[in-house]
Amino acid sequence: MNKEEYKKLVKQMSPKEPKLRNAIVAFLAGGSVGFIGEVIVRILMESFSLAKVDAYAWLAFIIILFATFMTAIGKFDNIVEKAKCGLIIPTTGFAHSVQSAAIDYKKDGLVTGIGANVFKLAGSVIIYGIISAFFLVLLKVVLYG
Amino acid sequence: MYLKAFIFSGIVCLICQIVLDNTKLTPGHITSAVTVIGAILSFLGIYDKLISWAGAGATVLIANFGHMLYSAGVEGYADSGFLGIFSNLLCKSGIAIVSVIVFSFVFTLLFKAKD
To answer: What are B18-35's pLDDT values in tens digits?
Structure first.
């Protein structure tokens, strides 16, 4: 059996991802994050009389606190595994990737473990976010002054 | 508004899930792409409209990270010119970066890995 045949066989044998179910779960989970976020923003605006911009900033803070804590106590991995993009695309995914990398590499020490590895996954979000934002700002300056 | 938030963030996650399942891209590729798309939508002036339509449904997404970077960069240029882009770019999204570093560091010291 050559490599190509082997690959074909593996593809046939490996279980098919239930795409429709994944999509529905991602929709419901992602929607719930947005819904809960909206509830938190309303509570912050009405109970603490925050401006809308500040309420959104607090919301980002609360989401990250929640996601890092749940990941640290080991409750979040299973949920992300099930909800997939429903929790990866919201800010929860960003916080989850940093926290899980930190806790996985803790055994390698403070500098070579945690320090070197926390942004292994979230680093690309920061890098490409900054690169794209920077050049778009330049483009805007060149086009519109 | 609650329903709009649910529908908007749900649909974005749904699209990303379909892309994830039908291509060879990893979740890392998709989150990076969504961040860049957020910056582009912000550049086109669409993201502000999305936030006023869907509220938190748009701000909970990682695309909002790109939007905050871009809008902070534009404000920095307006305030203090070219160097202002550099000094200001992270000032809004700094909340996300700093809080994720602080929390993950503290929690990592407090909790053990579960295997």
So the answer is: 999 889 999 899 999 999
Residue B46 in tokens? 């669409």
Residue with the two structure tokens 């407090």: B110
State the residue range of the domain holding B39: 2-110
Yes or no: say if B52 and B59 are a contact pair by the CB < 8 Å rule: no
Half-sphere exposure of B115 (CA within 13 A, CB side): 7
pTM: 0.88
B contacts of A65 (beta carbons < 8 Å): 99, 103
Tell me whether residues A140 and B43 touch, CB distance under 8 A.
yes
Whether B115 maps to a domain, the answer reads no
pLDDT at A16: 67
ipTM attached to this prediction: 0.91
Element at A47 (helix H, strand E): helix A19-47
Evaluate whether residue A11 is within a structural domain. no
SS3 call for B61 = strand
Contact B22 A63 (CB under 8 A): no
Rounded mean pLDDT of A40-63? 92
Task: Kindly state whether residue A142 falls inside one of the protein's structural domains.
Answer: no
The answer as to whether A80 is a domain residue is yes
Whether residue A56 lies inside any domain: the answer is: yes
Q: Hey, how many other C-beta atoms are within 10 angstroms of the C-beta on A33? A: 28
- Average pLDDT (B93-97) is 92
